[in-house]
Design a protein that fits this description.
Layout lengths: L1 H12 L3 E3 L3 E3 L1 E5 L7 H7 L10 E5 H9 L7 H20 L1 E8 L3 E11 L5 E12 L2
Antiparallel strand pairs: 1-2, 3-7, 4-5, 5-6, 6-7
Helix pairs in contact: 1-4, 3-4
Length: 138
């Protein structure tokens, strides 16, 4: 399951960049964590030094993707193709994961985790997975 899921997310994120004051790729991840995700747990998975792991902000999945999936009248083929890739990523994450949320860790150089749950047939959490990236906001 893990390898199949990561390959699926890799295909969805191929050549896709999150734009901010820098352009950053999206990288799939899989956490074998069976408990509920907390901001502190997400911060620990950030590669930031401990003193740079705050604040941790949780935002809605839909709100995060609205910025990248909104089509503007002036968009050309390249911009529309990027919007379609983000729409496909949001759909692909939604199809494979439940209870999706987005966590932003830090300030200025912000790690961003789009994370959802994987359940078994008994509705027990098996793991968490998603994609991560970073943005720069000064």
């Amino acid at each position: 399951m893990k390898d199949e899921l990561l390959k699926h997310f890799e295909a969805l994120t191929k050549e896709l960049l999150v734009m901010s004051e820098t352009d950053a790729p999206l990288t799939p991840f899989f956490w074998e964590i069976k408990e509920e995700i907390t901001p502190e747990l997400v911060a620990k998975h950030s590669e930031k030094p401990e003193n740079e792991r705050s604040p941790v902000e949780k935002i809605e999945f839909k709100a995060f993707f609205e910025k990248y999936t909104q089509k503007e009248d002036w968009y050309g083929e390249e911009e529309l193709a990027t919007v379609t890739k983000f729409e496909n990523l949001a759909k692909g994450l939604s199809e494979k994961l439940t209870e999706l949320a987005v966590y932003r860790v830090g300030k200025i150089n912000i790690d961003v985790f789009v994370v959802g749950k994987i359940f078994n047939d008994k509705k027990e959490i098996l793991a968490h997975a998603g994609v991560k990236t970073f943005v720069v906001e000064t």
